[in-house]
Design a protein that fits this description.
Elements: H1 2-11, H2 13-33, E1 45-52, H3 58-74, E2 79-87, E3 90-97, H4 103-120, E4 129-130, E5 139-147, H5 152-167, E6 173-179, E7 184-190, H6 192-198, H7 202-211, E8 216-223, E9 226-232, H8 239-243, E10 246-250, E11 253-256, H9 257-260, E12 261-267, E13 272-276, E14 281-289, H10 295-310, E15 317-324, H11 325-355, H12 358-365, H13 367-381, H14 388-401, H15 403-418, H16 431-458, H17 460-464, H18 467-492, H19 494-502, H20 512-530, H21 532-553, E16 565-571, H22 578-592, E17 598-606, E18 619-626, H23 638-649, E19 656-660, H24 662-672, E20 678-683, H25 687-702, E21 707-712, E22 716-725, H26 727-732, H27 737-749, E23 751-758, E24 761-769, H28 777-781, E25 784-786, E26 793-795, E27 800-808, E28 810-814, E29 817-826, H29 831-845, E30 853-858, H30 859-889, H31 892-899, H32 901-916, H33 922-951, H34 956-966, H35 968-987, H36 993-1025
Parallel strand pairs: 7-24
Antiparallel strand pairs: 1-3, 1-4, 2-3, 2-28, 5-14, 5-15, 6-14, 7-12, 8-9, 10-11, 13-14, 13-17, 16-18, 16-19, 17-18, 20-29, 20-30, 21-29, 22-27, 23-24, 25-26, 28-29
Length: 1032
C-alpha cells in the first residue's frame, strides 16, 4: 500500500503538485475565516434560571422560589449538577448538563420543566426566566457611559434606550447588561396623613392609577368604502396626567392623586452601582457574546457600532471601553504566531547546517506550510477556533511535522550522493535517477508511516479528558493530529516529487557540523556497545535519580494565564449597604490611581440587572487596566505591583480582598461556584452550624503556607427588621394577615402601578409612602393599617412585634444541600502539596458535626480528575503502540526495545521541569505524551534501518554500528528541529506562554536525553536483544 502510494506520486507528479496547491488554497481561505479566541471556552453546558422577587429576604426566596425550581430541574435528563443562590430579592438556579447535551436542547428541556415550577411558586412572587444564551467567558466587552452635566438617571436612560438598544442588534451579541446609574421612575409618594384625611387607602391609589392608564382596541368599522380602526386612548403621558387621576370622591368632591401624594421623577430602588477612577459614579454596559460566536468578529462589530453611537450621543457623552477581550486575543494569538515563525526559521537554519544543501533544506521546509495549512483547513472543517491551545498545538508539533520529510529527504539525498558518479542525461532526468529516488523513498516509507501513526496515537489520551481539562486540551490534540496527518500525506507524496524536481546529488562528505558531532560520538558509541552493562546501569541510575525528583516538583492543574489586567474583589461586612460600598470603592480607586502603572479602575458594587452575577451590595468587583508594561519606569513586574497593592489595601479596615484576573476569575467560578482557585465546600443543614465550622476551617487553612485571600462565604450577618404579626391582635380588629402584609409591601417597598410610555421608552410607575414615613423603625411602627369596617386605622405596632435580628445574607445549595464555601488562592506553592497539607491539618484539628461533610473543588478537583484519567489511558496507549510496533517489526523483542525509549525519555522531561521550576501540571503531562511519540519515532527509524542492513547480509554487530552511524544525521535532525521548534515557547514571555512553558520544558529536556539514549543505549540493547557478540 505504502509503496503503491509512492509509485503513484512519482508517476503523477503534476497531480501531486496540483493537490498541494489546492491544500494551500483551502488552508489560506480557511485561515481568513477561522474563528479566533484567546482561550478555549471551558464553560460547561449551563442553563441559568433567574427569578426576581423584590423585597423578599433570602429565607423566603429559598423556600418559596428556589426549592420548587431545583426540584423541577433535578429530574431532567442529562443533568449533572444543580446549584443555586437565594439572596435578597433574587433566586438564581444553575443547571449543569453533561457536555454531550446541546445547549439549545438543554434550554428547551429547562423551559418545559419551568412550567411545573411556576405552579408551585405563589402568585406575585416573581416569574422565572432563563439567563442569556452565553457562556462563562461571554463577557467580551465592557464599557462606561460618562459625560459632564448629565445626571446618573440621564446617563442610565441613554445606556438603556440608546446604547444598549443598538448594541443588542450587533450580530453575535446575545445581551447587553446595564449596570449603575439610576433607572428613571415615575414615583407616586403618598402622604399617610392625607390618606387618613380623605379616607383613602394605598390599595385604592394603586388601583385607581392602573384603571386610568390604558389604551384599548375596538376593532374597526366600515364607513362607506373605507375602513376605520378604533382606538381607545387613555394612557397617562406625563406627571400631570398621573397627578390628575381621581382616586375617590368625598361628599361629591373628587379626590385626586395630587391631593394625597407628590408625583415626580425619581430613581428606582437599585442593587448595584459603578464607580471609576475615584471620580464617582458612572454607568456601565456589559456585552455578552452568544455561544459559539467568533469572539474577534463580535468585538470588532461592537467597537464599530460604539464608534457610530458616540457620534450621535449628546455633546460630551461617550461610551468608552475599559475591558476588551480582543486585546487578550491578539496578544495570545500573537505569542503563538511568533513562536511558529521563530521556530520555522530556526528549523530552516538547522536543516541547512545538517544537510549542507539549500535545496534539501527548502524541500523539507515545504512540509511546514503544507502541513500547517492542511491542519487549519481541517480545524475550520471541524468547527475549531484558532486560540492559544489549538495554535499552541501547531507550535508544539512544528518540529514533528518535518520529521517525516527529514528522514525521507536525507535518505534520498544520501542515495543520490552515493550514486553521484552516474551523470544525468542533458535536458531531462536520468531514468535510473527516478528509480533511485523511488527506492530510497520505499526504504523509509514504512518506518515514516508507522512513526507518524504512533505520534498521532500518543495524543489519544487527550481526547479522553473530560470537563474543563478536556475542553482545554482537546483543541491542541486535534491541531497536532491534523498537522501530523498532513505530515504523513506530504511525506509520501509531495516530498518525493519535490526531490525529483529539485534535489541534486551532493558531496558524500559530512557537513562541518556532522564532523564535529561524529568526532566524539563514534568512540563513545563503540565504548557503549562493548560495555553494554555499564551503559545500561548508568541509564537506569539516571532514571532512578530523575524519578526521585518527582516528589520535589509539586503539582498544579494549569499555570495561570497572564491576561495583562488585574481583577480584585473587596468584601465589606455583611451589614454594609450600597452607599457604603460606593464610598469604599471610590476610596480604593483613589489609592490605586497613585500607582503610575495603572491606567483605569472601574468598580462594580452589587449586581447588574437580571442575567448577571447575583452579587450582594457589600461586594465590590474592580477591573484594573494597566499601562503597557514596557512603559513602566518603577522596575516593578505585575506580580510585585499586586504585592504593592495588597500592602496598601491591608491598611483598609473591615474589608477582605481577593486578587485574580477577569477570565481566570470567571473560570474559577465555573469550576467551583466561587471566584478563587480553590474551594473547600462544607455541606450541612443548619446555617449557624455551617458558619461556626467554616470559621474553624478558615483559621486552620490560613495557617498553611501558600494560602492567600482566604475567605469564608458570607451566609449570615445580614441585619433584618422582622415584623412578626400577632394573629390574636389582628383577629380582634377583623384584619387578615394579607391586609397587613400588603400594606407593608406597598407602603415600605413600593409597588408597580403601570408604566408611562415615552415613544419606545417605558418607565414604571411606583406607589409607596413618602420617605419620612418609612425610613425608620418608629415610622414603620406607626404605619396605619385600615380596618375592614368604618374608617379605622390601626398602627402596625399594635398588630405585630417589630425587632432587629441578624439573618442570612444568602443561602447556597449544591444538588439540593445547603453549603458554605471557604475560598482561597494558592501562591508561591504547588496546588497539590498545599491541598495535601491542608487536608491533613483539617483532619487533625477540625471535628465535623454529624451529617456534615467536606469536598474540595476548583482547580484541585480538575487536576485530580485529569491525572486519574491519564494514569489509566496513557498505559493503555503505550500498550497500543507496542502492538503497532509488533505488527511493524513482527518481533516482540524489537517492539519492547523501542518502547524502552519511553521511560528513558522521562529523564530529561523531569529535569526540564525541575530546572525551569515548573510544576507537574496537565500541560506538563501533555508534554510527556508528545515526548513519548518523538522518542518512539526515532527508535522506529533507527531499528528499521538496522534491520534493512541485516537483510542485505551484514552481521548484527556491523549492521548495528553502520546503521547507527548512517542514521545519526536524521535522528539528530528530527530531535534538533523538534527542540528548536519549541524553544520560542520555552523562552517566550507573551500572553499565554505560561500555559505552554511546562509542555515545552518537558519536550525540550526529554528530547535531549532521549536522543542521546536512542543513539547510545538503543544500539547497545539491540545487539544484546538479538544475541550478538560485539566484544570485538
Amino acid at each position: 500500500m505504502i509503496d503503491r502510494i509512492l509509485e503513484f506520486s512519482l508517476k503523477n507528479r503534476l497531480l501531486v503538485v496540483l493537490f498541494a496547491l489546492g491544500v494551500m488554497g483551502a488552508g489560506t481561505l480557511a485561515l481568513t475565516r477561522l474563528p479566533i479566541d484567546a482561550f478555549p471556552d471551558v464553560s460547561p453546558t449551563l442553563v441559568q434560571v433567574f427569578t426576581e422577587a423584590p423585597g423578599l429576604a433570602p429565607e423566603e426566596v429559598e423556600t418559596l422560589i428556589t426549592y420548587p425550581v431545583e426540584v423541577s430541574m433535578n429530574g431532567l435528563p442529562g443533568v449533572s449538577q444543580v446549584k443555586s443562590i437565594s439572596a435578597f430579592g433574587i433566586s438564581v438556579v444553575s443547571v449543569y448538563f453533561r457536555d454531550d447535551v446541546d445547549i439549545y436542547f438543554a434550554r428547551q428541556l429547562t423551559l418545559e420543566k419551568l412550567q411545573d415550577a411556576r405552579k408551585q411558586i405563589p402568585p406575585g412572587l416573581g416569574e422565572p426566566r432563563l439567563g442569556p444564551i452565553t457562556t462563562g467567558l461571554g463577557q467580551v466587552y465592557q464599557y462606561v457611559v460618562d459625560g459632564k452635566g448629565l445626571s446618573p438617571t440621564d446617563l442610565r436612560t441613554l445606556q438603556d434606550w440608546v446604547v444598549k438598544y443598538n448594541l443588542r442588534t450587533v450580530p453575535g451579541v446575545t445581551e447587553v447588561l446595564s449596570f449603575g446609574g439610576d433607572v428613571k421612575q415615575y414615583q407616586v409618594q403618598v402622604d399617610p396623613r392625607a390618606l387618613l384625611q380623605y379616607g383613602v387607602t394605598l390599595s385604592q391609589v394603586r388601583t385607581a392609577i392602573r384603571a386610568n392608564n390604558r389604551n384599548v382596541g375596538g376593532g374597526y368599522i366600515e364607513h362607506g368604502p373605507e375602513e376605520y380602526l378604533i382606538r381607545g386612548i387613555g394612557l397617562a403621558a406625563n406627571v400631570d396626567d398621573i397627578a390628575n387621576i381621581i382616586v375617590s370622591e368625598r361628599s361629591g368632591t373628587p379626590v385626586y392623586v395630587r391631593n394625597i401624594a407628590t408625583v415626580a421623577f425619581g430613581p428606582e430602588v437599585r442593587r448595584g452601582a459603578v464607580t471609576m477612577n475615584g471620580r464617582g459614579e458612572v454607568v456601565s454596559g456589559i456585552v455578552l457574546k452568544r455561544i459559539y460566536e467568533n469572539t474577534s468578529q463580535v468585538i470588532a462589530a461592537v467597537k464599530t457600532r460604539v464608534a457610530e453611537l458616540n457620534a450621535t450621543l449628546p455633546p460630551g457623552v461617550r461610551a468608552t471601553a475599559y475591558y476588551d477581550q480582543s486585546e487578550l486575543v491578539e496578544r495570545a494569538v500573537g505569542t503563538v504566531r511568533d513562536a511558529l515563525i521563530e521556530g520555522a526559521v530556526l528549523i530552516v537554519v538547522v536543516l541547512f547546517l545538517f544537510l549542507g544543501n539549500v535545496r534539501s533544506a527548502l524541500i523539507v521546509t515545504a512540509m511546514l506550510p503544507l502541513s500547517l495549512l492542511l491542519a487549519i483547513a481541517l480545524m475550520a472543517w471541524f468547527g475549531l477556533s484558532a486560540n492559544l491551545m489549538s495554535l499552541g498545538g501547531l507550535a508544539v508539533g512544528i518540529g514533528m511535522m518535518v520529521d517525516g520529510g527529514v528522514v525521507m529527504v536525507e535518505n534520498v539525498y544520501r542515495h543520490l550522493s552515493e550514486a553521484h558518479h552516474v551523470p544525468a542525461p542533458e535536458g531531462g532526468f536520468h531514468e535510473g535517477r527516478g528509480h533511485l529516488i523511488l527506492r530510497a523513498a520505499k526504504e523509509m516509507g514504512r518506518p515514516i508511516v508507522f512513526a507518524i501513526a504512533i505520534i498521532i496515537l500518543v495524543f489519544l489520551p487527550l481526547f479522553t479528558l473530560q470537563g474543563v481539562e478536556g475542553k482545554m486540551f482537546r483543541p491542541m490534540a486535534f491541531a497536532i493530529s491534523f498537522a501530523m496527518v498532513g505530515s504523513l500525506i506530504f511525506s509520501l507524496t509531495a516530498i518525493p516529487v519535490l526531490c525529483v524536481y529539485f534535489l541534486r546529488a551532493g558531496s558524500e562528505e559530512d557537513t562541518w557540523i556532522m564532523r564535529q558531532v561524529k568526532r566524539p560520538y563514534l568512540p563513545v558509541l563503540r565504548w557503549s556497545i562493548v560495555h553494554r552493562k555499564k551503559m545500561l546501569a548508568g541509564a537506569l541510575i539516571a532514571l532512578a535519580l530523575s524519578l526521585a525528583l518527582v516528589p520535589l516538583l509539586g503539582t498544579e492543574f494549569v499555570p495561570t494565564l497572564e491576561e495583562g489586567s488585574i481583577l480584585y474583589r473587596a468584601t465589606l461586612a455583611p451589614s454594609a449597604g450600597l452607599n457604603e460600598s460606593i464610598r469604599t470603592a471610590t476610596e480604593l480607586e483613589k489609592m490605586l490611581k497613585a500607582f503610575p502603572e495603572i491606567a483605569d479602575v472601574v468598580s462594580k458594587a452589587g449586581r447588574a440587572e437580571v442575567g448577571g452575577d447575583p452579587e450582594p451590595v457589600n461586594n465590590i468587583e474592580a477591573i484594573v487596566t494597566l499601562t503597557p508594561e514596557h512603559t513602566w519606569e518603577t522596575g516593578r513586574t505585575k506580580a510585585t505591583l499586586v504585592e504593592a497593592i495588597e500592602a496598601k489595601f491591608a491598611k483598609v479596615p473591615g474589608v477582605a480582598f481577593n486578587f485574580s484576573q477577569p477570565i481566570a476569575n470567571r473560570v474559577d467560578e465555573l469550576l467551583s461556584g466561587v471566584k478563587a482557585q480553590l474551594a473547600i465546600q462544607l455541606f450541612g443543614d443548619d446555617l449557624n452550624q455551617l458558619v461556626s465550622t467554616a470559621d474553624r476551617i478558615q483559621r486552620v487553612v490560613s495557617a498553611v503556607r501558600g494560602a492567600e485571600d482566604v475567605q469564608t462565604e458570607q451566609v449570615t450577618g445580614q441585619p433584618q427588621l422582622q415584623i412578626k404579626i400577632d394573629r390574636a391582635a389582628i383577629a380582634r380588629y377583623g384584619i387578615n394577615v394579607e391586609d397587613v402584609q400588603e400594606a407593608i409591601e406597598t407602603a415600605i417597598g413600593g409597588e408597580q402601578a403601570g408604566q408611562i410610555f415615552e415613544g419606545i421608552r417605558r418607565f414604571d410607575i411606583n406607589v409607596r409612602l413618602q420617605e419620612p414615613f418609612r425610613a425608620s423603625v418608629d415610622a414603620i411602627a406607626g404605619l396605619l393599617i385600615p380596618a375592614p369596617h368604618g374608617n379605622a386605622r390601626i398602627p402596625l405596632s399594635q398588630l405585630a412585634s417589630i425587632s432587629t435580628v441578624a439573618g442570612p445574607k444568602q443561602v447556597s445549595h449544591d444538588n439540593g444541600r445547603r453549603r458554605i464555601v471557604i475560598q482561597l488562592n494558592v501562591r508561591d506553592r504547588d496546588m497539590g502539596g498545599f491541598v495535601a497539607e491542608a487536608q491533613r491539618q483539617i483532619g487533625e484539628r477540625v471535628v465535623l458535626p454529624s451529617g456534615y461533610s467536606i469536598t474540595w473543588g476548583g482547580q484541585f478537583e480538575n487536576q485530580q480528575r485529569a491525572m486519574r484519567r491519564l494514569m489509566i489511558i496513557v498505559p493503555l496507549t503505550i500498550g497500543l503502540i507496542y502492538l503497532l510496533l509488533f505488527s511493524s517489526f513482527n518481533s516482540l523483542k524489537q517492539a519492547g526495545l523501542i518502547i524502552l525509549n519511553v521511560p528513558f525519555a522521562m529523564i530529561g522531561g523531569i529535569l526540564g521541569l525541575f530546572i525551569s521550576r515548573q510544576y507537574l501540571s496537565v500541560p506538563a503531562s501533555v508534554g510527556f505524551i508528545a515526548l513519548f511519540g518523538v522518542a518512539v519515532l526515532n527508535g522506529v527509524v533507527l531499528v528499521s534501518y538496522i534491520n534493512s542492513l541485516r537483510q542485505e547480509g551484514r552481521d548484527i554487530a556491523t549492521a548495528v554500528f553502520e546503521g547507527t552511524v548512517l542514521r545519526l544525521r536524521p535522528v539528530l535532525m528530527t530531535a534538533t528541529v523538534a527542540i528548536l521548534g519549541l524553544l520560542p515557547l520555552l523562552f517566550s514571555s507573551g500572553a499565554g506562554s505560561e500555559v505552554q512553558r511546562p509542555l515545552a520544558a518537558v519536550v525540550v529536556g526529554g528530547l535531549i536525553t532521549s536522543t542521546a539514549l536512542t543513539l547510545l543505549l538503543l544500539p547497545t540493547l539491540y545487539g544484546w536483544f538479538e544475541g550478538a557478540n560485539v566484544d570485538e
